[in-house]
Amino acid sequence: MIGVGVVRTPPDAELGQRLVAVEQGIEQWLDEHRPECVAVERVFSQHNVRTVMGTAQASAVAMLCAARRGIPVALHTPSEVKAAVTGSGRADKAQVGAMVTRLLRLDAPPKPADAADALALAICHIWRAPAQNRLQQAVAQHTATARTTARKGRTA
Question: Residue 156, CB half-sphere, CA atoms under 13 Å: how many?
Fold first, then answer.
């Protein structure tokens, strides 16, 4: 782990101002750490529409900041992250925090809990990315082979 941080915005601020603050925080992080890729939590339907909208908006800002710089973005669902870190896709925040602490050999769980979630997302991506890359390469190779075969069929 090189670092972890959380962008906080005033809950009573106007939405546009909050999104600008999120963008500035992410841009600062990208400037400072220069990552090779960005992992973002894939938004899924929750019971609280307001929560899912806020998460989706912040996720979109993160993806936009990365895309602007040509940094690849990977999306992982919360259950994928929990399963990668704890072995269970239904783990609670305390279990995720405990496993992040253990895996990264930290003295204490990262605070706030959102920091532990961000680290869990990074760990998930590090573990899942090689398999995802191999799958993408296999699909690309299959597609290229199918195109070549189709072209040969037209010229024969």
Answer: 6
Cβ-based neighbours of 78, under 8 Å, separated by 6 or more = 41, 42, 44
Are 23 and 5 a contacting pair, CB within 8 Å?
no
The residue assigned the tokens 């305390």 is 94
Read off the pLDDT of residues 79-124 as tens digits, 9 standing for 90 and up. Answer: 999 999 999 999 999 999 999 999 999 999 999 999 999 999 999 9
Report CA torsion sign: 64, 41, 134, 95: positive
Does the predicted model carry a pTM greater than 0.70? yes
- Cβ contact 120:81 at 8 Å: yes
pLDDT digits (tens, 9 = 90+) for 27-37: 999 999 999 99
Query: Hey, what are 59's tokens?
Result: 């996720």
CA–CA separation, 147 and 135 (whole Å): 18
Among 117, 127, 125, residue whose Cα is nearest residue 55: 117
In the block, tokens 């920091």 appear at 115
Q: Give CA torsion, residues 90, 93, 97, 99, to 10 deg.
A: -10
